[in-house]
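Lecture 7, part B: from sequences to assemblies.

Below are the input chains for today's worked example.
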Amino acid sequence: DGGITQSPKYLFRKEGQNVTLSCEQNLNHDAMYWYRQDPGQGLRLIYYSQIVNDFQKGDIAEGYSVSREKKESFPLTVTSAQKNPTAFYLCASSEEGAWNQPQHFGDGTRLSIL
Amino acid sequence: DAKTTQPTSMDCAEGRAANLPCNHSTISGNEYVYWYRQIHSQGPQYIIHGLKNNETNEMASLIITEDRKSSTLILPHATLRDTAVYYCIVSASGYALNFGKGTSLLVTP
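Predicted structure of the full complex, as structure tokens:
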């Protein structure tokens, strides 16, 4: 089945530690996205990538980093500079020409601080 | 992208039509209206989108007013599985979607 796989489902981070969240898609989509969701809130865009080896900051990029070395993969690193990383992280992808193509989402990763 | 305004919550009886309103009075001519929903603890699911014409698919209908300043998502026969948060989003690019707080729809037996 085609889709987006996020791993792990739950992740715990110690203070001062970097962690990387995985996002893989087999939909052959060009664009990929990372969102953060806090309890009772909507989604906020962290980074997005329209094509391999290119990505743009979203509204809340500080304390996060991404890479896009392969079309199917868009990992997100939560660095120690992100002081409040506890949240639900969602990855999405869409076909080229995003204005007319829906975004498909994974099932998310819940990150907590130990 | 234009801002949207949605009611915080709504109720609907199972089997009845659920009509979810959205105001987007500052929408520009090249901006689309998108609807997504999010069932608790899952990733959002795309429902439908449109520019100015009304749209219908297997999930829902989207009615956009002639002046495009508001729209309504219609779930024709709501079921308990339609209980979710529904997001109305306006965007020209489709890339940087602004998911606000949405409308929490509760479908009751």
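Note for the exam: Strands of chain B lie at 9-13, 18-23, 32-38, 45-50, 55-56, 61-64, 70-75, 84-91, 103-108. Keep this in mind when comparing with the next example.
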